[in-house]
Amino acid sequence: MSPSAVVPGELGSGAAPSRWSFRDKILLSTGPFTHEMFEPSEEAVAALGEMQILVIGAGGLGCEILKNLALSGFKKIHVIDMDTIDVSNLNRQFLFRHSDVGKSKAEVAAKFVEKRVKGVSITPHNCRIQDKDEDFYLQFNSIICGLDSIEARRWINATLVNMVDEEQLQEGISDSLKPLIDGGTEGFKGQSRVILPTMTSCIECQLDMHAPRAAVPLCTLATIPRQPEHCIEWAHIIAWDQEKPFPDVDNKLDNDDPEHITWLYQKALARAQEFNISGVTYSMTQGVVKNIIPAIASTNAIIAASCCNEAFKLATTSNPSLGDGENNYMMYSGNEGIYTYTFKHEQKEDCPVCGQKAKDLTVDPEWTLQEFIESLAGRADAQLKKPSVRTAEGKSLYMQSPESLELKTRPNLEKKLRDLVENGHELAVTDPAFATVSFRFAIHYR
Amino acid sequence: MTEVVADQTPPILKGPSDKEKKYDRQLRLWGGQGQQALENAHILLVNSGSGVVGIETLKNLVLPGIGKFTILDTGIVSETDLGVNFFLDEDCLGQPRAEACTALLRELNPDVEGEGHLLEKDGLSGYLQDHHLYTLILFSYPIDPTSVSHIEEYGRKHRIPLVSMHSAGFYSYFRIVLPGSFPIVDTHPDSTATTDLRLLNPWPELSQFAAGLTKDIDSLDAHAHGHIPYIAILLHYLKIWKDENGSFPSTYKEKTLFREKVSSAMRKDTPEGGEENFEEATAAVLKTVSVPALPGSVKEVFDYEPAEIDADSNFWIIAKAVKAFYAQHNQLPLPGSVPDMKAQSTTYVQLQNIYKAKARQDVAEVIEMVRTHPHGKGIDAGEVETFCKNAAFIKLIRGPDASPRSLGEIARKEFQSDEEAAAWGGPVSLFPIYLALRATSHESSTRVADILSEVDASIPDVASNEHLKKVVEEVARAQGGELHNISSLTGGMTSQEVIKIITKQYIPIDNTCVFDGITSRAQIFRT
């Protein structure tokens, strides 16, 4: 079989070598692995430029993603980010210069790529993703995330799953289904994944792959610190509230204020000396308080390019992509040699976002409701920090807000779980971070 | 600002420097020493073909602050470049590509020096004269064979690493040639892998301390009992086990029984219904109750005969001393770190000090052996200490001469495992991608038959493989054109490896990485 269905040179012949000739060699011919539906045509190439793509995050991944999309031939790009540029971004966020520190990431990044790559339009949105409604998200063909926060990922994931119009989908109209491509990095490691909302495993299905760091018990911080991190957490959680060192700003801790970090550092250092613990540094203090994840240009380049490669294949069908084929997830590790693991993460029936079934939860009947609520934050597959709890019948057991309801339901916190819900019955849990989702748990007593 | 109590050592009050702030997120990975190594490096890129992969690699090295880069390139910026290369714009059309890219790359980091030169035909050898300028050379395919031999000759002569890259369509590979054996001390093992507590052969100070904590263990009050560090708990019950059974638990079954014994010693009449320290002890049994075996990678270092030119390097002198230490004690020097565990602060710090003291004692013994070597006098004690701390995780990447396998051998083995993998639906080998790209190393053939015959000419009997044929079709489809995403991804991987090699931290690949942008997978081969 000849690899070419359209003889190169026939299309657009006579013109000087075009800017997009490399890409078009691929798009104007079929390959041995392309789906049989793929038809190379100039129209398909033109369609690529008409697609609207949303990039969430204009940080380390976002800068790379914008560059890659522009150089893949996408012409209608939006980018959303609420952050401003910090000096610690400059070792990887290559669209920013020292003189940009303090400016909006989305705006500076959009302007830079528009100037560099002729013909591309990038619309910046300097706000939170939660500030935009469904109509905003509906205008895009697909969405690429380069975020460092699990919460933001969970929010957009739930929003996109909710947006899917199942009836339309049954009739073959997929306008409401927005493929979500998500990248993440930490040091030399990262992952990229493709999600077809409601059809393939979603971010919530995969939540347990990002287990939260185990919290140090308060009593360790308060009475028996052993590690430098314990001293820093003590300064952060206990000393700050007790001593209220900055009344001029209502003692609101600003992680980016060097005076605040210095105060915590000195407190932690003094405590460490008291207990003969060594190792507290300014850098460690900052790392613990801000939960800093190491980040480098090269890993961002790998993961962002992987995401954009998948977006390009999805948009053009020029080759199979993650999500439409066998697999939907690529793990990358560069610590020890290079290792990739590309696999299919299965959709979960009991996924609170895209599944139909309640998640089984085995708990101690002697637990108080308070203990149950606290356990939801630490569970890798729940990670809910401010849960409100109702019974399946709709009776409120504990509500975080409004205040009147919180006051009314607060006495329940002391009650034992076995007195509030019967074995095998369901609880519905909501959290302000994911307003549209109700997590269903089937309670089983051990 | 608040002052710290006067009778304590005053802390350094100044915050991080501007440079520390800019590089904060990477210093947390490779530290000041790694950063210094990067800043001392001068990277040469001999850019060839459409050359995006090389520029993308440099971008990821300029950002973290390598000292200097030089680009040599015969190319003149064309319309096609603007569709794939981000470090060019309209104003660059018609200019030498090396100079144009250099200017835009330098904007990324004012701390980095860079120069770019238009390479005349046959001009490369002029830049590769005797003087030793470059820390590492990158070059991209397709490139003419004469240039490759100039680069290889320079690499051999000055003993520097060479990295070649080839990206076309959805496929790419890059290949590292190290100048000789490449040992790494600072491999950054996963922190959970590094626990070495010596529970089965404790030294007297540790045994005494633990025995003191567990004397009258059953009559201890609730607070004391709940705060015995798990190391002491395990040592206590191991002693009882040995007294009863004559030896330590060694089989899985014995260890499981031992674990039950430890678990059953936990007091359950506490407000929490258990004790955290006993839970930690129970959880630690399988991992810590064992004599650490000599890791295979360390044995490889011990068994390796370094080339004459390397034998007097600090690494091999220290390695020899550690080998002697191992021969004498049948164990490696103690790393000396203690994982966090439930305990009173003072008890934990005492325990830490006991492990640290033993580690220092081991280091002192190794230093003594190092000093007996004719070139061992000048070796810094800190270097020996770092080596001993990481001894179980040192790693040797062998030089290019070590037992090379022919491409034909590798191909046959890969094709055979593909047949096996087909039975259970495993992923297919990416080696054909390397073979097909390699067949277009010097010019981008567009015809399937040409590429296949080129493969056939260098490696007989593999060109008939069905999967290889398809891969060749896909390579022909790209006609040598780079896709920005694939070149950017490959540049990311390549720069990670360059950073590992320059900082001598983490473990670089050995030695060829192939990426398939269709199935989104990478695979490593030694070629």
Describe the structure.
The complex is a heterodimer of chains A (446) and B (527). Chain A folds into three domains: 21-210 and 296-343, NAD(P)-binding Rossmann-like Domain (Rossmann fold, 3-Layer(aba) Sandwich); 218-290, Ubiquitin activating enzymes (Uba3). Chain: B, domain 2 (Arc Repressor Mutant, subunit A), CATH 1.10.10.520; 359-445, Ubiquitin-like 2 activating enzyme e1b. Chain:  B, domain 3 (Structural Genomics Hypothetical 15.5 Kd Protein In mrcA-pckA Intergenic Region, Chain A, Roll), CATH 3.10.290. By secondary structure, chain A is an alpha/beta fold. Chain A is 33% helix and 15% strand. An eight-stranded mixed sheet of chain A has the order 3-2-1-4-5-6-7-8, with helices on both faces. Chain A has 14 helices and 13 strands. Chain A is globular. The radius of gyration of chain B is 29 Å and the shape is elongated. Chain B is built from 22 helices and ten strands. The model of chain B is unreliable at 1-11 (pLDDT under 50). Chain B folds into four domains: 18-180 and 484-525, NAD(P)-binding Rossmann-like Domain (Rossmann fold, 3-Layer(aba) Sandwich); 197-288, no CATH class; 296-397, no CATH class; 407-478, no CATH class. With 527 residues, chain B is of the alpha/beta class. In chain B, helix 3 (52-62) links the parallel strand 1 (42-47) and strand 2. The N and C termini of chain B lie far apart (60 Å). At the A-B interface, helix 1, helix 3, helix 10, helix 11 and helix 12 of A face helix 1, helix 2, helix 3, helix 4 and helix 16 of B. Chain B: Keywords: Ubl conjugation pathway. Chain B: One of its GO terms (biological process) is protein neddylation. Chain B: Residues 23-521 form the THIF-type NAD/FAD binding fold domain. Chain B: Pfam families: ThiF (PF00899).
